[in-house]
């Protein structure tokens, strides 16, 4: 099977990481893979290092003058603007496509956006809230849920020791995300204020950068239990040096960093928002907190700080859960989606050809 993946993002976040991991697994499974990516984005550079054909696409309106994908069976769209590229490609050449959506906010009501989703052969969401949004816009195509798979990062024991020395004697709580309003760093700061006096050994480390960073640093003024370390390229080292991962987002499609923390052996605490409850099953694979409530986040952190046995239990349960969402499992699920989409596209094409023949006069 020859699949073309499309992700035109100019940045590199969880969605791009998942696109890359799926492509790698499909290559291992014997697929022929083509990828379309923004040449200014980090994903494009990473794709050049693996065994797939990569084409630069700078804009969803460009590169439709010739069908360089004539050997592809299906397009797999991974990013918002790419849905329009796939829609145009289908209109010109009839190439079927599927869409994977990673955010749980409502889909635009614009006519062109609705057309892009309704012309897809199948719609895939990472979590229940996302599939609910997809069902509101779908026509007759299938709407399925295929969660992200956990990603592992390399670990340097020397780097881990450096981090541990930097926070010696601390119970290190990580939050790693782009510093945007909906990511809930403000909730973590509220929790830090609650813990600052009575639990000086609990220390928050914020990994990431973004438009909210300056405002968050102002909120954390005079708090000695928070350190902002900016973006980090060695997440494997940070995961292994830490004791706990928190992800108190106000909204979230799924939360791939939670899966990454679980994979690295960290207990996790997340908010009861968006798709997070799909992967954090309360009291089983992690703990859930009230969205936006620093007090409940603080109490859950205290609970895990005081209960090493519970931390171990959550980690063990999470590892068993991760086996169900491995990249191998996700690739198998996508293969079935692809086969159904291609079969349906051939069926529709056959009906159209039959109809055209029936209209040709004798």
UniProtKB/TrEMBL annotation:
Keywords of the record: Glycosyltransferase, Transferase
The UniProt record lists the keyword Transferase: yes
Residue stretches making up the Glycosyl transferase family domain: 167-319
Pfam families from the UniProt entry: Glycos_transf_1 (PF00534)
Coiled-coil region(s): none
GO molecular function per UniProt: glycosyltransferase activity
EC nos: 2.4.-.-
PANTHER family in alphabetical order: BLL3361 PROTEIN (PTHR12526:SF634), GLYCOSYLTRANSFERASE (PTHR12526)
Record protein name field: Glycosyltransferase family 4 protein
Native species: Vibrio agarivorans
